[in-house]
Amino acid sequence: MWQNRMRKIRRLSLVLPLILSLCLSSKVSASSELIPEGEIQTDRVIYKTETVAPRKIQTTISKGAEIYYPKTERVIYEGPEATYVGMACKGNQTEVKAGDPLIEINVKVDAVGIVEKQLALKRRQASFEKGKEDREKEIKDLEEQVQKAGTELEKQKLSIRAEIAKIRLEQYIFSEENTIKSQQEAIDEQAAQKEVHYICATTDGTVSQIPYFSAGDVIHTGQAVAVITKQDVCMFKSDSELAYGLDVVVHSNGREPQIMNGTIVASSSVLTSDKPFSLIAVKGETIPKSTTRTNWSFDVTTEDIQNILMVSRQAVEKDDKKEFVTLLDEANMPHKRFIKTVLTAVDGVWILDGLKEGDRVVIK
Predict the structure, then answer these.
(1) Cα–Cα distance list, 51 to 306, 323, 345, 348 (Å)
(2) Residue of 14, 92, 176, 334 with fewest CB within 10 Å of its CB?
(3) DSSP class per residue in 184-237
(4) Cβ–Cβ under 8 Å, residues 21 and 300
């Protein structure tokens, strides 16, 4: 038995070196396949980000318009009945300034009416003098009574009555003198109408129309006697109601685009009208007559909010109806940040609280 054991030991002593050599060779092979530590690459998440910065919100609407070209103004005669004498300008296409004479007229003077007004004025003046004397006498009587008063209390009462009478006299004189002055001015104005008169231009521009008159034709108050065209101002009308004073950009939609700046100068929002409308004035621009049939429209900015913090709509998410963004810190680590928003527009979301200028947020 002892011999058998010795044989096994000899066999193991022969096999063990072989096993050890095999293990060592496999270890060397495995170590040769390892990647050097400097070449190892860890996975990194690349985010699409946006920096929070001040921006603005503008809401612009576009409306159609029709052109009034050019702007015209009718000259209306206001005054007593008159007769036509002749032209005081060269007629149509005459360049005029406000105040330039257009038509010469003779005003029919109501002589009887002037005499009646003069008599009424004399009666008023006489009544004024009589009323003034009566009030002055009342004051004088009260002052004499003050001197004769037996007690101090009675004296004070009479003094107060005298002061009140003086104030009433001043009011009476002021009122009557103004009335008399107005009556005299009316008489003088009517008497001056005996002279030759002119109907004058009410604005700068070009005389585009004067009705035909014959000598002696009667011209009544409220009658249009001329039309003046203003080439430096053109008007547009829209069927939309817009706020008075808004600035707009008017542009043509034809082959030769034109862009002009204008202002809403009239609107049904401030004027009584059954239908909504707005009038736009464009100053300092002259529109060629060849484009008067062009289609026109205008753009108006209804909202203009400056210097507010905004982010893209793709950066804002919701968690149980609460809005939040993914905020990246300096180490590029993401954090959930709840925010308060004010308005969502086409350009982005207006941030009220939760972010500051310079923050980086993830865009989904």
Answers:
(1) 18, 18, 18, 13
(2) 14
(3) HHHHHHHHHTTSEEEEE-SSSEEEEE-----TT-EE-TT-EEEEEEETTEEEEE
(4) no
The Cβ-side half-sphere exposure at 335, using a 13 Å CA radius, reads 14
> Tokens 């400056």 appear where?
306
204 beta partners? none
Sheet holding 196-200, edge to edge: 196-200, 101-107, 82-87, 218-219
Q: What are the tens digits of pLDDT across the range 292-343?
A: 556 778 787 766 677 778 888 888 898 888 899 999 988 888 988 998 887 7
pTM: 0.35
pLDDT of 220-234, one tens digit each?
889 999 988 876 677
- β-pair type (334-338, 340-344): unpaired
The first and second tokens of residue 338, run together, are: 């709840």
